[in-house]
Amino acid sequence: MEAHGHFDIWRDNTVILARLKGQWNSEMAQTYANDFKALAEPLLNQDWAHIVYLDDWELGTPEFEAVILELVQWVIEHGLKRTAQVYSPSMLKQFQMDRMVKETQGDFVRQVFANEQQAFAWLEAEGYPVENAQLTLVD
């Protein structure tokens, strides 16, 4: 089956940033998981963080959740300590995110923010500054 959806992913200091777009299926989730793990490789011997932009993301198929659940376990086992999710209030997104990513798990903490400035401020206060603290990618 063909992958549906799109993403941009990059690293800044000890933070992996990702912007998700469109409706995702399990094939897109697997591509994302593979790219995420490759990008995280240099961070695996230290604590690190993640910020994900979800305003342009249109949820995922039920099969997609299994892939993301596996990725969540992998990143937490490999040093991810903080995740900031950025999106305008959406009960559907919150419902799907809450099913896949717990708010806390051991030393891991996830927070949701309505804008990236709040997310960057929280990550910096938690010890994960982003050098280029703005979303510079364009469509």
Please provide a written account of the structure.
There is one protein chain. This protein is α/β, with parallel strands linked by helices. It has a single domain, classed as Transcription Regulator spoIIAA. It is 37% helix and 30% strand. The chain is built from 4 helices and 7 strands. It has helices spanning 26-40, 62-77, 91-100, 116-125, and strands at residues 6-12, 15-24, 48-53, 57-60, 80-86, 104-105, 108-113. Strands 1, 2, 3, 4, 5, 6 and 7 form a 7-stranded mixed beta sheet that branches. β6 and β7 form a beta hairpin. α1 runs parallel beside α2 (62-77). The protein is globular, with a radius of gyration of 14 Å. The model has no long low-confidence stretch (mean pLDDT 92).
Briefly characterize the structure.
By secondary structure, the protein is of the alpha/beta class. The chain contains four helices and seven strands.
Question: Which labels suit this protein?
Answer:
single chain, 139 residues, alpha/beta, Transcription Regulator spoIIAA, 7-stranded mixed sheet, 4 helices, 7 strands, 37% helix
Overall pLDDT, averaged? 92
Total number of strands: 7
Please count the helical segments. Answer: 4
CATH architecture: 2-Layer Sandwich
Structural class by secondary-structure content: alpha/beta
Residue share in β-strands:
25-35%
The H/E string reads EEHEEHEHEEH
Largest sheet: 7 strands, mixed
Just give the CATH class.
Alpha Beta
